[in-house]
Specification:
Helices cover 83% and strands 0% of the residues. It contains 16 helices and no strands. The chain has one domain. By secondary structure, the chain is mainly α. The N terminus is likely disordered.
Length: 432
């Protein structure tokens, strides 16, 4: 490769504060869209219907994660890793295989959700009016799975900002626009959500098509590197990781739904999603930096890998700490912006934000493990988180309701951040 081409490649692929800032701007649009969506949906639907909406939203997220089978994160690693050494055909195979399997998984998850909607509504949530919303949620799972899979593929091409737009920014803004245009029923909001996710998926496919020139082998760029495992072997442990992570985020809401009224679930869900804005920042930076982690590790560039990791942690801490401070100091007024009665979750928001404080300081180490071939260890760490969450949840949520759910969320979140950080320091000390 000529010096000029090498410089251009470096500028495109190296993470930088400028690229992080661009990703955070996109995430700012996501925050506006999601907060606006949650606030308007809660106001338009009322506490009971809002509770049903958040149950559906949580169900969609969990089902879509299982449907992707871990291939989304596997695609990011394989596409970035193969392109880093000029193996475009291998990257193309990873792209097509990953999108094919996630499409199949999304369809199957939708069928299962449709089939269990009635018994779940009646026996799990004791909400007879949840059956039809869950049927609509089943249909939304398909475009949700597609949008997140296409976005993960774009991340592998180092199209981090485009990836953020597809996965996280476009659909909430479009759904918010539908509410502003007059959609006020629960069914209408779910239909608008599904159409917005479909639009995001189609735009992402257009952007992927523009990368087809890179999906050819470039022998001059090849470097000596260990072959990657098959896509399935990378995906399987990451499937467990992704499922556990979403299950941990969903567990407090779904468990609370089994013991509390829909209005209480709605208030806690709003607090939980406000606290998860810190997670939004972490995912944004992680998406930008993940292909660099994969490429540097594939080429054995340890100093560059350590530099990228430190820059990612610094960017997350700088962006997240002010938001955590706001949640700790004025939780009630923040929740009052949503509507009357939601400030009942102020105590829960304080507890959840403490977990996010730890998460913001010790960020992106799960991404490091996933992008460097330590998916099996990451799976074990996540299963340990799930075990702690289940034990604590079974004790605290029935006894303390919303407060117990918040404690479960905060403890498992902090546990995950600390565990992955210790694992990276032990296994890849040159990357920390």
């Amino acid at each position: 490769m000529s010096p000029l081409n090498r410089l251009l490649t470096l500028l495109r692929t190296e993470p930088s504060l400028g690229r992080f800032a661009g990703a955070l701007v996109v995430r700012g649009g996501e925050v506006i869209g999601k907060l606006g969506l949650y606030i308007l949906a809660a106001r338009a639907l009322g506490p009971h219907q809002a509770g049903l909406f958040f149950i559906c939203l949580t169900w969609i997220g969990l089902a879509s994660t299982i449907a992707r089978l871990g291939f989304d994160k596997a695609m990011t690693r394989h596409i970035a890793g193969e392109l880093a050494i000029g193996q475009g055909l291998a990257a193309r195979h990873a792209l097509l295989s990953g999108l094919g399997w996630t499409t199949l998984g999304g369809g199957l998850a939708a069928l299962v959700t449709w089939a269990v909607a009635e018994p779940a509504a009646r026996h799990l949530f004791s909400a007879f009016d949840l059956v039809e919303p869950l049927h609509l949620a089943a249909l939304v799972i398909i475009p949700q799975t597609a949008a997140l899979s296409v976005g993960a593929a774009l991340a592998g091409f180092n199209r981090g900002i485009a990836s953020q737009l597809v996965m996280n920014a476009i659909w909430p803004l479009l759904t918010l626009a539908a509410l502003l245009a007059g959609v006020t029923s629960l069914d209408g909001v779910l239909i608008a959500l599904g159409l917005s996710l479909l639009a995001s998926s189609l735009l992402g496919l257009v952007w992927i098509a523009r990368e087809r020139s890179s999906l050819q082998d470039q022998p001059r760029d090849r470097a000596v590197a260990e072959p990657l495992p098959t896509l399935w072997r990378t995906a399987l442990p990451l499937l467990a990781v992704e499922t556990v992570q979403v299950a941990l985020n969903s567990l407090p809401v779904l468990a609370l739904g089994a013991f509390a009224e829909a209005a209480t679930v709605g208030a806690f869900s709003v607090a939980n999603r406000i606290s998860m804005l810190i997670w939004v920042v972490i995912i944004s930076i992680g998406t930008i930096v993940s292909p660099a982690f994969a490429a540097h590790h594939r080429r054995g560039e340890w100093a560059a890998l350590r530099r990228a990791n430190r820059l990612a942690r610094l960017a997350v801490a700088a962006a997240s700490l002010p938001a955590v401070l706001l949640m700790l100091v004025v939780p009630g007024p923040l929740l009052s912006l949503v509507g009357s009665g939601f400030d009942a979750a102020a105590g829960a928001l304080v507890i959840l934000s403490l977990g996010q404080l730890v998460n913001g300081v010790l960020s992106c180490q799960d991404v490091m493990l996933a992008m460097t071939g330590h998916g099996a260890l990451l799976r074990r760490l996540n299963l340990l988180q799930l075990a702690v969450g289940l034990v604590l949840g079974s004790i605290l949520i029935p006894a303390f309701g919303m407060t117990g759910a918040a404690i479960v969320g905060a403890v498992t979140l902090a546990q995950g951040a600390i565990g992955t950080t210790l694992a990276v320091r032990r296994l890849i000390p040159q990357a920390f």
